Amino acid sequence: MKDLYQKTIADIGLENQITLTEIAQAQMLVDNFEHVILSQGLKKISVLIATENESFRVSILVEGDSDCHPSLQVKINNKVTDWGVIGYTALLFLAANIDYDELETGIKYTRTGMRDRVYQEREIKAEKAEYIVKLANNIYGEHKLTNEKGIHYNVTLRDFSNKTGYIDNIDLKTNKLGTTKHILFLYKYFADNPQKFKKLKKSYPFIEIYTDGLNDYKISWFFPDKLTDDEKQLLKEYFGTKSCIEHEQTANFFAFIQQSFDYKRIKIRPEVIEKIEQHYSQIELQQLQATKTLDFSSINAKLYTYQRQGVEFSVFKTGVIIADEMGLGKTLQAIATAILKKQIFGFSKTLVITPASVKQQWVNEIEKFSHEKVKIIDGFPDIRAELYIQDDSFFHIINYETVLRDLNAINRAGYDFVILDEAQKIKNYETKTANAIKAITKKHALVITGTPIENKLLDLYSIVQFLDIYFLAPQWEFSYQHCIFDSKQKNKIHGYYNLVNLKQRLNQILIRREKKDVFEQLPNVIQKDIFVKLSDEQASYHMGFAKGIQMILSKKFKTSHDWTRLMLLLNSMRMVCDSTFLIDKETNISPKLGELSEILLEKLQIKNNKRKVIIFSEWTTMLELIGEQLRQDNLTFAMFTGKVPIKKRSAIITEFEQNPECNILLASEAGGAGLNLQVADTIINFELPWSPAKKNQRIGRIDRIGQKHKTLNVYNLITSGSFEMNILAGLFLKQNLFDGVLSNNEKIDSVNFNDKGKSQFIRQLEAIAANQDFLSMEADSENDQESKQQEQGQEHLQAVNELENLIDNIVANEASAKSAQNNTLISDDDYQQMHDVMNKGMDFLTGIFKMSTGKDLGTQGEPKVNIDRESGEVSITFKLK
């Protein structure tokens, strides 16, 4: 790459593309002005070139492949142009300043480049916004904006040159831009309405003391008009000759707050008070940690050394993630942390937010390891609201979905400590549930999860936001520091880098131990991939689904129906690898079932040694088919899925654990979340999940402290020559991301999805098509086919990119759907409302049916709709005559 830059510089001079005078002007600009690299990648680098009068955004692009005589092209302000003074300046500057060895496929933004990008995004939002404006009588007064939902925003302008201002919202507090779309809207409003601008007073009404987002939120002052002598003296005493104080001077600034009460023109923003309070709070925590000795006598368990260290790490911090590998006793550490916080800080209320399936398990653990009272908060909304406040139990337990409904009641109760168990629900930071959880008012917080990263680095960002909105914020800064972006799709991430630096930052709030590091006696886990061939019938279905995918990919324009269809086809390819019954509901051709019997009866000899085995499948129907096979093999089993009412689940687990004849548990993803099943020593994954986190969670059900078996076995059934091989390849890369941030392996500092990840995932799918003709269309002549490929190249590339984005969301979509299935307990009010709506719907459908056929549905005198209050299942009964 460096040679290409040098060659282009030489060619421009030799071919007289610019004059010697222009070359001299370019060199002068390089030597005398400060230029900034905005973003850089293997194929494109953008730089801001400064001149005496203005700045230019210049992009240098590589045209052609490295093996096919590549050349450089220049764009100035997004327009392709010939090499001139500005373009040549950029070329000289980049040739001297780019570290070519570090360039990756995709784009790494600089801080300035990413800041400009998000600033422009807010400008675009401000352009599109429609607010009703009520102006103050002063241009620098408090103006009121009202949006279409009737929400009011009070906005103050500060600096017209930088377009900064003040609004009391989370974006201004964390974005490090000094402005928001509301503030930018108001600046544009005055630019568009100069007559209104002229009518307002122009004197600045107060001396503003604020935290400056443009200067790392240091406490600053602003007043453009004349100060009195007393005001000058006070500001000089604390700020000196600068307009801000350093972070380490924050503690001394409390005296300024007290003195400022005597100065009417001084206005102190709430964020300043909050910053000072946080500073003193941290000092107090550090002093307590240095002087207090933790007393573990109130914990009814002997903690391992690493568990005590986890508690010691957590007690004296306001926000912590315990990310120990599954099976290391994170729940016990959380319970101990809560009890010790009660001893030291006088906390009286702890809220535990957990998946619905493990609420009772939390009760059992708390009662086992402590003397504290515990209460599951459930019932009707008014009952829950009363329990939050009046129940005197130290531990209150709710599931994630309850937070969205009860946020106001939870905040009125005023919890001291909030624990999140298995925080997958807040990894997508845009969901309503995630926003509700982050809005909970609390003093301290703890997240326990074995998988803080499932698929994306932003999973971790969202979890940290719950603990401390400032720690990794803003998101754009986090992104430029660690994300490699696509050169064409600006929101698409190719991979991650600088992970060692991120790990060092997280060391302040995150503690993770792996079994190999802390406990030599932990059972060994042996994983075995068992490859099964496709039957002819399965291969036929598989080929058909692949053809459907190819047809959608080849379309130039795709509708939302196409993408829904594509996701169904992808899942159908997975399902047919398990059994044809999942597709046609008639045949049951499944080589995996035969292999399963072989594993159970021959390899494990389950009838003779009575070992306990868990078999996982994502599809309940498949579990039922497995159950039929087990009955034929005369094997006793229990089934645990999301369909089992929550209150009855513990009985099934007890049956599996205590009945010596019940050797096998069939479990779905929804049913198995959060369970401790160390009575088992073997897991069989009937199909591989999309993400390594799900696979690790399954293994973690049995690989826990308390496991008595020395060797644990995990069998993965994989259909060779099928889509499952691509899932197997994709799991390896996502595990690398997980290890790069959270493991003790300092060698993993970057993960590039462009080479081995999502794009490779698609390329492997296409490779299968090439090798096995899965995706071949109607036969064309060789020449026609080559021509067609050339014509459709760009359309296909776009389709592949869109498919990658779809695959990104499959795991999250499946998890959301199964979570919804798993938490469906219905109140009387909800039941009656659902019953009325469903019956009215049936009346409507009955009428339509009769109008179109002249026949009745045969529902007279019979209940048309039945709703199971516990599972949420709705059944509709009618007869077709």
TrEMBL record:
Residues 311-470 form the Helicase ATP-binding domain. GO terms for molecular function: ATP binding; hydrolase activity. Keywords: Hydrolase. Residues 600-749 form the Helicase C-terminal domain. SMART domains: DEXDc, HELICc. CDD domains: DEXHc_Snf (cd17919), SF2_C_SNF (cd18793). InterPro entries: Helicase_ATP-bd, Helicase_C-like, P-loop_NTPase, SNF2-like_sf, SNF2/RAD54-like_C, SNF2_N. Signal peptide: none annotated. This is Uncharacterized protein.
